[in-house]
Design goal:
The chain is an all-alpha fold and 312 residues long. It has helices spanning 2-7, 21-51, 58-84, 94-127, 132-135, 138-164, 181-186, 193-225, 230-258, 265-289, 292-311, and strands at 11-14, 91-93, 173-174. The protein has one domain (2-311): Rhodopsin 7-helix transmembrane proteins (Rhopdopsin 7-helix transmembrane proteins). 78% of the residues lie in helices and 3% in strands. It has a three-stranded mixed β-sheet with strand order 2-1-3.
């Protein structure tokens, strides 16, 4: 019976961000501009780090990977949301819905672990500077990135397997602009109370574990930096402040969605937009303008471009 019910669900209906057509036009223009900025900013950071030899260090290698992840994270739901803002009937096929769930949790879970890896890099650089080159070798950096992707994949596929087995025999309406695990569980035609707690706990444990590790790491790093010279302490504070701001921006919405759920539709939609659009937009700004080396690298690139134009 379950197989029959599942096979008849070929698509879900998305309610979108709002009902007002005027607001939808406004959001279409606003979010489209933000998405284009996200794409250009993150591509620019990756290219800048690859091309500038001064940025060929473990910290910037991890930062380039973070920008690549942000680009993918914002692309999981945002393009679909933008195109749906111009449609009266917003639908998504069951296959596309499952893909959104898989890649959303795959990339999101991987980014959580990648942020922990970046904290580990700063810990070694500030607390064990003499061993930094040995510990943060190229092989170690690649391993950290691979671990983040592996954990993200395991986290995502384990949840997707459960979601794909749910029967849907009634409502196909998803009260949001994208598919996510709590939203899909809510419309399944079985008693999902225990399942909802289990699935939210699965995501919540990963988010809270990484968040607590990051808080402990940066607290220890800052306390250690206070015992260094004034210049070194100032540099460590500047770098760690940027990292902490990114951590708060990224984990804040995740914790409210999966750990302390408010069950208020408008708030959940705002947090989802903040998580998928605003956070990836602010990260490049924080890392570029809050990092001296990135600013210098940008100036060098600008000077090279001006010199090239002058030569032509």
């Amino acid at each position: 019976m379950t197989e029959v019910n599942r096979s008849t669900v070929s698509e879900f209906v998305l309610l979108g961000l709002c009902d007002s057509w005027e607001l939808q036009i406004f959001f279409f223009i606003f979010i489209l501009v933000l998405y284009l900025v996200i794409v250009l900013d993150n591509i620019f950071i990756v290219i800048l780090i690859i091309t500038d030899i001064h940025l060929h260090s473990p910290m910037y290698f991890l930062l380039a990977n973070l920008s690549f992840v942000d680009l993918r994270l914002s692309s999981v739901t945002t393009p679909k949301m933008i195109t749906d803002l111009l449609k009266e009937n917003k639908t998504i096929s069951s296959e596309e819905c499952m893909c959104q769930i898989f890649f959303g949790h795959f990339v999101g879970g991987g980014e959580m672990v990648l942020l922990v890896a970046m904290a580990y890099d700063r810990y070694v650089a500030i607390c064990k500077p003499l061993y930094y080159t040995f510990i943060m070798s190229q092989r170690r950096c690649i391993c950290l990135v691979m671990i983040s992707w592996t954990i993200g994949f395991v986290h995502s596929i384990s949840q997707l397997i459960v979601i794909m087995e749910l029967p849907f025999c009634g409502s196909r309406v998803v009260n949001s602009f994208f598919c996510d695990i709590p939203l899909i569980i809510e419309i399944a035609c079985i008693d999902t109370y225990s399942l909802k707690i289990l699935m939210n706990s699965h995501s919540g444990i990963l988010a809270m574990t990484c968040f607590i590790l990051l808080l402990i790491s940066y607290t220890y790093i800052l306390l250690t930096a206070c015992h260094h010279s004034k210049d070194e302490a100032s540099k460590a504070l500047s770098i760690c402040t940027a990292h902490i701001m990114v951590v708060v921006l990224f984990f804040g919405p995740c914790i409210f969605i999966y750990v302390w759920s408010l069950n208020i539709t408008s708030v959940d939609k705002f947090l989802a937009v903040f998580y998928s659009v605003i956070t990836p937009l602010l990260k490049p700004v924080i890392y570029t303008f809050g990092n001296k080396e990135m600013r210098l690298s940008f100036r060098r690139l600008k000077s090279q471009y001006i010199s090239y134009r002058w030569y032509l």
